[in-house]
Amino acid sequence: MSMEINGNYYDVKTYSAKEPAKEKAADHDSDKPAAPQDEYVSGQKSDAKPSGLYRVGQDENGNRKIFYDDPNKSKQKEENGVPKAEGGKPGKPAEKCVGDTNAVDREIQKLKDKKKQLKQEIQAACDDEKKTKELEKKLAQVENELSQKDNDAYRRQHTSFTEI
User: Fold this and answer.
1) How far apart are CA 4 and CA 27, in angstroms?
2) CB 49 within 8 A of CB 55
3) By the 8 A CB rule, do 55 and 67 touch?
4) Which of 21, 39, 97, 108 is most buried, most CB within 10 Å of its CB?
5) What is d(CA 52, CA 70) in angstroms, rounded to the nearest whole number?
6) Are 118 and 135 within 8 A, CB to CB?
7) pLDDT tens digits along 47-89
8) Which position has the higher pLDDT, 92 or 27?
9) CA proximity to 151, closest of 115, 117, 104, 118
10) How far is CA 132 from the centre of its chain?
11) Burial status of residue 142 (CB atoms within 10 A of its CB: 0-12, 13-18, 19 or more)
């Protein structure tokens, strides 16, 4: 048994396998307008440029990145000879900066060295309890300061930026 659905869902007709194909064709050629059908339209036929294009390229580090080519960008860049900033407002063009965490890294390394030195001093002064307790207090302070500074949030917060 087969079914044929014409544009309107209420006009469902069924056919059995025993019925000849001529009847099916006769029903199909009725004076009702044909239902619209989807059709594939190739992008090569059209000469019109799309409103925006995405393309895969490489960034300055050689990593793959998806770029969006805005057709309005060339209109936004300059207006009356004044380059526009990225926000679309006239002003300075976008600038590049480089982040530097060397100062933070040196500070953290000094704390790690101090911690290592205090541990050695504690082992060397195992006879003197008063000195050992004092060194352990200093060690606890250094470890506390190290735990606060040795993380990504602290590095981001204390990064210095320079223009290229």
Assistant:
1) 10
2) no
3) yes
4) 108
5) 5
6) yes
7) 555 555 777 788 888 888 887 777 666 555 555 555 555 555 5
8) 92
9) 104
10) 52
11) buried
